[in-house]
Every structure is written in structure tokens, then in C-alpha cells.
């Protein structure tokens, strides 16, 4: 049991750090216009936060998908997007508030971030499931796979 918890923590953390380091880094460099050193600093700070939130998000996503039980690819896409949106947006609001954003800055930042989470929900869900399988784990509502198969 402890071994599975450790593998779950490692898989969820690795998946989140890799996916959002790449996506956020590209966004910060090419959309926000940050320099590569600024991106490196931002992603270093982001990595710490991702380590703290990766496994809680994994629990949230598993619970959410097990509760909603999407039965079609479209429903799965929608539920994965809602799961990411509903978990990450409140975290993002706290981060930008703590960083000094106020009023319309919070509103516009949150709207943009929410749109991004809706778009990235399913791609990230697929990536997370892929990484979990590499660690011998399986998706929501399924028994863990053996490491050999």
C-alpha cells in the first residue's frame, strides 16, 4: 500500500511538472514575452507549487471522474476539463492575489487561466493516465496494473 502511494505521488508529480513546465514555459516565452531567464525563474517557482498540488489534484480528478462516470469520449473530455478547471483556478486566484493582483487583474487573469484549463483538461488527463501507466498504475475506478504488464 505504501509503495502504491509513493508511486502515485511520483507519477502525479512527474506528470504535472513536465506537462505544465513545458506548456507554461512556452506560454510565458512566446505569449507573455518573458525572457528565457525569466521563464526559468517562473518555472522554478512553479515547480515547487506543482509538487505541492500534483497529488491532491490526482485525488480530486480520480474522485471527480469516478463520481461523474463519463460514458462517452465527449463526456470524458468535458469532465476532464471541468476537473482541471475546478481544482486549478482557485489555486491560481490565490497565487496571483498573493503576488499582488487586485480587482480587474484578478478577474482578467482568472478568465484567461480558466480558458486555458478548459482547453488543457483532456490533454493533461491523457498525459497523466499515460505517466501513471508507466508507473504501473491505472486510471480512476480501475485496479492498479502490475509493473510487468
From TrEMBL:
It comes from Devosia geojensis. One of its GO terms (cellular component) is membrane. The chain crosses the membrane at residues 9-27, 77-98, 104-124. One of its GO terms (molecular function) is L-amino acid efflux transmembrane transporter activity. InterPro entries: Ala_export_AlaE. This is Alanine transporter. It holds the Pfam family AlaE. It comes from the Bacteria. The keyword Transport applies. Keywords: Amino-acid transport, Cell inner membrane, Cell membrane, Membrane, Transmembrane, Transmembrane helix, Transport. The keyword Transmembrane helix applies.
Amino acid at each position: 500500500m505504501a509503495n502504491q502511494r509513493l508511486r502515485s505521488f511520483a507519477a502525479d508529480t512527474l506528470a504535472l511538472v513536465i506537462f505544465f513546465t513545458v506548456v507554461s514555459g512556452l506560454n510565458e516565452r512566446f505569449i507573455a514575452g518573458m525572457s528565457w531567464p525569466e521563464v526559468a525563474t517562473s518555472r522554478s517557482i512553479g515547480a515547487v507549487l506543482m509538487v505541492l498540488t500534483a497529488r491532491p489534484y490526482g485525488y480530486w480528478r480520480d474522485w471527480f471522474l469516478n463520481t461523474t462516470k463519463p460514458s462517452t469520449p465527449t463526456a470524458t473530455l468535458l469532465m476532464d476539463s471541468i476537473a482541471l478547471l475546478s481544482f486549478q483556478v482557485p489555486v491560481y486566484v490565490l497565487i496571483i492575489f498573493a503576488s499582488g493582483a487586485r480587482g480587474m487583474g484578478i478577474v482578467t487573469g482568472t478568465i484567461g487561466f480558466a480558458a486555458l484549463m478548459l482547453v488543457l483538461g483532456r490533454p493533461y488527463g491523457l498525459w497523466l493516465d499515460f505517466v501513471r501507466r508507466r508507473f504501473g498504475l491505472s486510471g480512476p475506478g480501475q485496479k492498479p496494473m502490475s509493473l510487468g504488464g
